Amino acid sequence: MKKLNIQTGKGIYLVIDPSDKPEEILFPTLEKLFTFPLSAVQIWDHFGEGQDAVAFTSKVVELAAAYDFPILVNNRWDLLKVKEVDGIHLDSIPSDLSSINAFLDKKHLIGLTVNNDLELIRQAANLGFDYVSFCSVFPTNTTQHCDLVSFDVIREAGKITDMPLFLAGGIKTENLPELQTLPHSGIALISGVMQNQDPVSALQNYFNSLQSK
Questions:
Q1: What are the two backbone dihedrals, phi and then psi, of residue 22, each rounded to the nearest 5 degrees?
Q2: Is residue 8 part of a domain?
Q3: Residue 179 belongs to what domain range?
Q4: Which of 41, 140, 150, 181 could be cross-linked to 170 through a Cys-Cys bond (beta carbons 3.0 to 4.6 Å apart)?
Q5: For residue range 49-94, what is the model confidence (pLDDT) as tens digits?
Q6: Could you tell me what percentage of the chain is helix, strand and coil, using 3-state DSSP and rounding each to the nearest 5?
């Protein structure tokens, strides 16, 4: 299994929307995006009606095979059966905690979306989660289910856990400087890259901005 490609404060965790574009357009775009030194790639659980989730996931894994970043699925435990999937990102902790314990024995990565609840972050750390992602650090249409995260909560999280912390939601190159003082391993992006008319140039701009911090 591949591990997170951690680049403290300068990493990019890319989230892809399977239904965002036709696959014949999306896959060639991903081929180009995967040449960047990404921290991880998550396949969002947002498949189109009739879309083959297993086939889609298998193709993404195939495209990423030559690179050292992991591929994670979102919420869909069934997609862990796809060969070479490296882990799962959960929007919440399952009520059946034994399912997590059995899962962790398999050495998959496991991540969690968090907001302003520090106790949830402590719980994730105690359960052996590999990282958490804060949603949402800025207003955004992509993550409408997320409340805005207090920057003070992120600072406190950096004191109570050594887990990698990713920041997500509404992040643009213009507001990156506002995140500089926060403890984090990188930023998670979806619409800022994938909904841009030129995703490759958009991703390059983010990397350039992070490197100049």
A1: -55, 145
A2: no
A3: 18-139+146-211
A4: 140
A5: 999 999 999 999 999 999 999 999 999 999 999 999 999 999 999 8
A6: 35, 15, 45
